[in-house]
Amino acid sequence: GLPMADLSLAAIQKLFSESLFDPGDIRCLDFLHASTDVNKARRLDIYRNNVAYAFTSALADLYPVVQRLVGEDFFAASSREFLRRHPSPQAAMVYFGGEFPGFLRNFEHTQQLPWLADVAGLELCHHQSLHAGDRQPLDVTAFTAIPVDVLPDTILTLHPSVRLLESRYPVLRIWQANRQDTLPEDIIDLDSGGESICIRRPYREVSVSQETPQGISFLTALAAGKTLGEATTTVCSVYPDFIPTEVFSRAIEYGLFIDARRNLT
Asked: What is the mean pLDDT of each run of 10 residues along the chain (265 residues)?
């Protein structure tokens, strides 16, 4: 490798950072102070283990249900591999671990648990909703003031805490059954059908509930900037019997919207 004099401080720090998440990477040893390379390696391993423990603990705090489902040892081993492949790009820990559901979906050792990534996705949505910005949701009077003929051209802005999730598996029931320290009373049939889930925090607490597939499609269309009329048309093209008023009323009750304006384009 290059002598220290030929590398900037930033380059040396990058080498050190990369070596923390890859036990086979010893490039930074040249820049460590110790009597022998063996002592350098031991010091690096101590620091590496401390960092791995801290990040694994943070990941377990973010994905406690996943940890409970696979066990602490398997979770710790998976976490170390995740950290090696996805070192945190952000200094703020609130952004850490966002790639974990995708990692579990593709990780060779979790392929026999195809539902696990969706459980992790639900835990991530809950975390993101909890830390989303605070905004005052619109109440029903804001919508009754909109003329009926204007409603189809109305664009609705969803609350920043809203997260929409669909899974082929009963992930909400799995999540609910494994949030507590007690064993779940019922065995959940993984083939019992998928779930469409709405997560939000318009007020103090995060709320999680099932929604219909049509409702998730409708809310997703609104989140993409479609007008009420366009969103209804989009969903009806797939679900001809869709009744938007049911989902719309429920969304107002949940406090999912923070703004309503007429599309003038």
From this structure: 57 66 63 62 69 84 94 92 75 76 95 95 96 93 90 95 97 89 70 93 94 96 96 96 93 95 83
Q: Between the CA of residue 123 and those of 19, 128, 130, 165, 212, what are the distances in Å?
A: 29, 9, 11, 11, 20
For residue 219, CA distances in Å to 14, 106, 153, 235 come to 42, 28, 16, 10
Query: Over the range 136-150, which residues count as b (16 or more CB within 10 Å of their CB) and which as e?
Result: ebbeeeebeeeeeee
| CA separation for the pair 26, 45 (Å, rounded) | 10
Residue 119 · residue 196 · CB < 8 Å: no
Q: How far apart, in Å, do the first and last CA atoms of the chain sit?
A: 60
Distance, in Å, from the CA atom of 129 to the CA atom of 142, rounded to the nearest integer, reads 24
Closest by CA position to 84, among listed 133, 23, 140, 26: 23
Is pTM, for the whole model, over 0.85? no
